[in-house]
């Protein structure tokens, strides 16, 4: 999905939620559609403010909630950190969280995915959804 498609998807989702697309909200949607990291609301607010000075933090929070309810963004509540957001149409991946810097690193392991499915199957289940978070610290070398 291109950035333009992402932007359109977010805009449509907000419309579907009955939220008017103001210039401020459009700025936030733009910021969300280009973000390839996992910013929190404060950081999204900071970025949106560059394009649309005066956007309030509560507008950011309310818009994020509406988008999350529409299923077009994911909210990650990692331990010891404020909620982080990312658009929902990325390929499946899991996250490592650097406990010292708060940096979020994406990873996906075929081996782990397969192992999880096998473990669930052994216990008579199929996986509906999973979330894996590794809390990590950089090794010195
Ligand atoms: Zn991610």
TrEMBL record:
CDD domains assigned: Fur_like
Q: Identify which cofactors the protein needs according to its UniProt entry.
A: Mn(2+); Fe(2+)
Q: Which UniProt keywords apply?
A: Cytoplasm, DNA-binding, Iron, Metal-binding, Repressor, Transcription, Transcription regulation, Zinc
Q: How is the cofactor bound?
A: Binds 1 Mn(2+) or Fe(2+) ion per subunit.
* Stored InterPro entries: FUR, Fur_C, WH-like_DNA-bd_sf, WH_DNA-bd_sf
Q: Quick one: a GO cellular component term? A: cytosol
Hey, which family's this protein in? Belongs to the Fur family.
Q: How does it assemble?
A: Homodimer.
- Its recorded name reads Ferric uptake regulation protein
Organism, per UniProt? Answer: Marivivens niveibacter
